[in-house]
Amino acid sequence: MRDKSYSTARALWLALRAGGFGVDAIELLLQWRNEAKSPFDRVQIGIDMNFLGLYAEAGIAIAEGLDGNLSDDDLYLAKHELAFALYGIGKFREAHSIYRSLRCASSFKPLIKSLYPSEYQRNTELFQKKFLNLDDSIAGKRVAVLYEGGIGDFMMYSRYLESMRLEGVEHVTIQRPDIVAGVLKPRSWLGEISGANIEDILDNHDFVTWSFTLFARYQDTPFYPPEPSSPWAQAANAESLPTLIREQLSDDPLDRKCLKIGILWRSTNTNRCEPYRSLTLATLAPLLSQQGCQFYSIHVGGVTIEERDLLDKHGVRDLGSHIENFSQTASVLDHLDLLIAPDTGPIHLAGAMGRPVWTLLSATADTRWYNDQYFTPWYASMRLYRQNALGDWSLPLSNVARDLQDLISLRGVAA
Fold this sequence. Notes:
- Helices cover 42% and strands 11% of the residues.
- By secondary structure, it is α/β, with parallel strands linked by helices.
- The protein has three domains: 7-100, Tetratricopeptide repeat domain (Serine Threonine Protein Phosphatase 5, Tetratricopeptide repeat, Alpha Horseshoe); 106-217, Rossmann fold, CATH 3.40.50; 238-410, Rossmann fold, CATH 3.40.50.2000.
- The longest helix is centred in the last third of the chain and has 18 residues, at 394-411.
- The chain starts with 5 loop residues before the first helix and ends with a helix.
C-alpha cells in the first residue's frame, strides 16, 4: 500500500468487510488500531470493530474516545455502540445502564434525531409532550408503541406488551408493517395500526414510545423475563394457506415418518450484520442429505438458478416461493417440527410462537444474543449455533448435524 495513511487503511478494511473478506479486514484493522489517535478516531475504529464482531476490543476503543470532546450526535452514537459492545461480551448490567440512559427523557432530542433524521424538528415538537419516560406510570393510560427496526425486532420486543398489561395499562396500540398483520395473539386491550398519521396517534393516546424502549424499560436481567409465560404470536388457520403449500405440507407415504424441517439461508434485506449474517445454500447443502428428514424451504423473494438446482437435487420442497406474508409463514411453522435458519424475521416468529428453532449465528451476530454459546433468554424454544471464526460455518453446521441426528434417534424416525 503506497499511501500509508490511517484513512487509506480504514477505507481498505471497510471495503474488505463489505466484500466478505472479514478475516483480512480484521487483520488490517488490528495492525492499524494504535494509529487511531483522536477521540473521534477511537470511537470510529471501535464502531468498525463492532461491525467485525470484535466486541471486547471495541468496548475499550470507544470508552477511550468518550474521554474526548465529541459532538452531541457523535457522543450519542458512541454510547450506543459502547452498549452494543458490552452486550456482546456478556456485560449486561453495564450495557443496560448505558442503553437505558439513551432511551430516557434526558436523551429525548438525540433519540428523536436518530429515529427521524430527516424530520427531526417536526417530530421533536410532536413527541415532546407525550414522550413516555422510563419511570412514568402507565397505569390506566393509553400508550402507542411505534414501529422501530425490522420484523425480527417487532416480534422480539412484542413480548413486553404483556409487561405493559401487568403494569396496568388501559390500552396499547402497536404500529406494525402490513406484512405481519394477524401474527400477534389478539387481546382485548391491544390494537394494531399500520402507516397511521402520527398526529392522529398522539391525539388518541396519553403516551408514545418505541419498541426498543420497551426492552430498556422492562428487561432488568440477562435471563428469561418474567413475562410472557406463553407464546405471544400465533398461526392463522391453515385453510388460509395457498393450496400448493397445504399440499406440500400434507403427509404422504414417503415422508410420514420424517421430521419436517424448514430451512432458510439468507436474508432478503440488509442490516449491519451483513454480508456475514446470511450463508449460501451450498454451505447448508451437506445438511440436506440427512436421512429421516424432509426439508422445506421458506425462503421468500425468489431463488437463483443454482439454488433451484440444489433444492431439486436434495428433494427440498419450496414453500417460500408461495408465501405472501408472515401470517402464512406462521401457519407453515405450525406444521413443521423444526426451523433451521440464520438471524432473520422467521426465527423470531418461530420463537414468539414457541416453535422449535435452531438459529445460526455468525461471529458478527447482533449483540442481542449476548455471548452464550447455545442459550438465549429471548425464546424458550430456540437454540443457538455460533461461528467461532468469522465466515466459517463449519463448526455450527457440524453441531447442527450432530444434534439433528440425536433428534432423529430420539424421535424414533427411521433413517
